[in-house]
Design a protein that fits this description.
Elements lengths: L4 H27 L3 H22 L7 H13 L6 H19 L7 H4 L3 H16 L1
Length: 132
């Protein structure tokens, strides 16, 4: 994908905004006890900011698993993103996949509540990388 600098910056800004909005949505939905949807919104909050980071550095993924792979290859394995945060993003991806596509998956508060703070930290870390 070939983008001008202006187009790339606009997309990055929009993706970061979407990440922040999705995080707020997750917190609002959490209050209603809809844990599968909360997990979904947490994943998308981290996904959007991850996409922004990839675009910032000229990487483009065509799939969600492609985002996981590119982050691992170019950021986690290089020590730019910690292994813990890389594992966290992968865990969110798996939880979202399970919640969306596994008919028998049950996602409860104990699965989701421990993910709120790490999601906030992940988004903060990635935003700082984008800004640097």
């Amino acid at each position: 994908m070939s983008l001008t600098e202006e187009e790339r910056n606009a997309i990055i800004t929009l993706r970061v905004q979407k990440a922040q909005e999705s995080l707020l949505e997750a917190k609002d939905i959490m209050k209603l006890g809809h844990w599968r949807v909360t997990a979904n919104r947490l994943y998308y909050a981290c996904y959007y900011v991850s996409i922004a980071l990839l675009i910032k550095f000229g990487f483009f993924a065509k799939t969600h698993s492609g985002v996981v792979n590119l982050l691992g290859l170019h950021f986690v394995s290089q020590g730019i993103i910690s292994k813990e945060q890389g594992k966290f993003y992968s865990k969110l991806f798996e939880l979202r996949q399970s919640g969306d596509y596994d008919d028998w998956a049950i996602i409860e508060s104990v699965d989701v509540l421990p993910l709120i703070t790490p999601a906030e930290e992940y988004i903060y870390t990635i935003k700082k990388l984008i800004e640097s």
